[in-house]
Amino acid sequence: MNLLSSRQLLLLCIIFTNSAYSDENLNSGYAKLLALSLTDDISASQLNSDGFNYEKYSLPYEFKNLYVKDDYSFSMQLKGNYLKVKSSLVNVDSVGSLRARWDIFSISAAPKVTYQINERFSVENELEFGYANMSNKSSFHGSQQMREILRDEGLLDWDLNSFHVTPKVGLKNTNKLDNNDEINIYGHLAYMFANGFKNEKQLNVNSSTGTWSIGGEYVMTDLIHLNGRNFSLVLSNDIGGFYGNNYRELSFGFINNTSLALETPMNIYGSKVKVQAGIGYLSSDNAHGIALTLGIR
Fold first, then answer.
1. This prediction's pTM
2. Residues whose CB falls within 8 Å of the CB of residue 22, separated by 6 or more in sequence, listed in order
3. Which of 122, 180, 195, 290 could form a disulfide with 46 if both were Cys (CB 3.0 to 4.6 A apart)?
4. If we measure between CA atoms, which residue out of 219, 203, 228 comes closest to residue 18?
5. DSSP secondary structure letter of residue 89
């Protein structure tokens, strides 16, 4: 296919073409998009990178300390995610233009066991199970012949379903200050195994990819009092990305998120939870954007 006139279309072909191309590239590209939609390690709420726009929405709910014995505690997190990826308009010589788009919906459940080493350090072991559906909603305006070529190459009109299993390990350091504020430092390492099923056009995602993150936060406990409710101010900075072969395959290798959030305790159906909402700035060597956060734990 020698009608390519832009780096973006070349990138699309490398990552999202059919079995005529390298299975390694095919699986790796899909796996990284799926991992991006599922992971908490990499922020992409509103991200622009190398002609691509990423929009990610995630709503987690954590059942914390469901079972506690000695220095061990068991928790469970449920999460729903939506990721939309769009490219800018790509001209294919004089025969038409392509705007790539993929939508990914996913749900997951993650049991977690935390071991408290001492009053400051704890180790988190998590195993996430989930399902994801990726839809190719790319549009092409131009000749019918080129449309058929792009469809045959896997750049138009398909759906991809997959299950995933992701083991994850983390280390957290918690420091309580005399004024009841907190300084927390943490890091995570995860590896996602994905397996596709009932997919069209012989597309598959039997692959795996790794993610990592490290960060810290300063929690100003009960800093704001409003209408009888206490709000804590959370200042944080996190950096996360992919690791392994082709870790920059999505045009960025890591994302830094500097954020500001408010957190308040609430009672929901008799259970005490903390609700957090905030905003952050995303950046890397060739990407930037904004992160909007909402979490319940």
1. 0.83
2. none
3. 290
4. 203
5. P
Residue type, 8: Q
CATH of domain 7-296: 2.40.128
| Tens digit of each residue's pLDDT (9 = 90 or more) over 274-293 | 888 899 999 987 889 998 88
* Rg of the chain taking only CA atoms, in angstroms: 21
Phi, psi of 140 (to 5 degrees): -130, 135
Closest CA to 18 of 144, 136, 162: 136
With beta carbons less than 8 A apart as the criterion, state whether 68 and 57 touch. Answer: no
Q: The tokens 């799926």 sit on which residue? A: 34
Token reading at 267: 């009672």
- Predicted confidence (pLDDT) per residue in 142-197, tens digit: 888 888 877 777 778 888 888 999 999 999 999 999 999 999 999 999 999 888 77
Q: Does the structure show a pLDDT above 70 at 2?
A: no
Q: Show Cβ contacts of residue 42 under 8 Å, excluding neighbours closer than 6 positions.
A: 35, 36, 211, 213, 240, 241, 242, 254, 255
